[in-house]
Amino acid sequence: MTNRLQGKHVLITGASAGFGEACARAFAAHGAHLELWARRLDRLRQLKTELEGKYAIEIGIQKVDVRKREQVHVAAVALFERDWRVDVLVNNAGLASGLAPIYEGDLDDWDAMIDTNVKGLLFVTREILPSMVARDSGHVINVGSVAGSWIYPKGNVYNATKFAVRALTEAMSVDLFGTRVRVSSVDPGAAETEFSVVRFHGDVERAKKAYEGFQPLSAEDVADAVVYVANTPPDVMVTRLVLTPTAQRSPTMIHRKES
Ligand code: NDP
Ligand code: 8X3
pLDDT, tens digit, for every residue of 215-224? Predict the structure, then answer.
C-alpha cells in the first residue's frame, strides 16, 4: 500500500502504553514525526529514545494529563510554538475504572472515566482542531470501542463515555461538513493491554482472567487499524472501523475455550 504518512505530523494522546504506544511505533515505522502525550513521562522518554534510534523522525514528548484543561492548553501552545502542524490527531487516552452495577458505582471511578474519555478528548480536540480548519486539512481519529455501540452489564458509565465518543465523532464530522478535515473512529473490542489492570485497580490476576480462553486483539492489531485509517487517500474517509477478536461477536459474546 502507498505510504502517505511519510513526513506527516501525528499527535497521539495516551502514548505511554497500549494502543497509543503501538500507534507511535507504527506511525514511526511509516516515517511520520510524532508528538506523544501522557502522564508517565519516563515511559515517553524511553519510547522517544528507542524510536529516534531507529528512524529519522522528530519526536516531541510532553507530560499531559488530558483531564487538566490548562495542561492541555500549555502543551498545545508549546507544540505550535515549535511550528508544528498536526496532520493526524489520535485521541486515544482513556480508561475504564471499575466494573460495578450503577447502584454500587464509585464516584471517583465515574469522574476518572468521564473526565478522561469525554472531557479530555474534547479539551485536546478544541486545542488542535482550529488549526486543521484554518489549513483545511487534517484528520482526527478517535479511539472509541465496541462499548460505545453495545451496553454490557456493569459497563454503565464506561459505556456512556464511549457512546459519547461515538456521538462526538459524528458531531465533529457534521460540524466539519464542507471542509477537507476528516474524522474517523476506530472501535476495538477486547484487546490485551494495561486496560484491564487499570479497570481492576491494579489487580493483575483479575485482569488476566478477562482474556482467558480466547485470543484477544493485540495493541499492534489496533495500531494497524489506526494507521490504515490515517493512510487512506485524502478523498477517502473511513467513518468508523470496528475490529474485534474473531472469538468476540459483541462485548458479552466471547467464545472461550475451556482449559
Ligand atoms: P492502556 O491502559 O494500555 O493505555 C492507556 C493510555 O492512556 C496510557 O498511555 C495512559 O498513559 C493514557 N492515559 C490514561 N489517562 C490519561 C490521562 N488522564 N491523561 C493522559 N493520558 C492518559 O489502555 P489501552 O491502550 O487499551 O486503551 C487506549 C484507549 O482504547 C482507551 O480510550 C480505551 O478506552 C480504548 N479501548 C480499549 C480497549 C481494550 O480492550 N484494551 C478496547 C476498546 C477501546 P498515562 O497513564 O501515562 O497517562
Ligand atoms: C474496551 C472493550 O468490551 O472491555 O473498550 O469494554 S470492553
Answer: 999 999 999 9
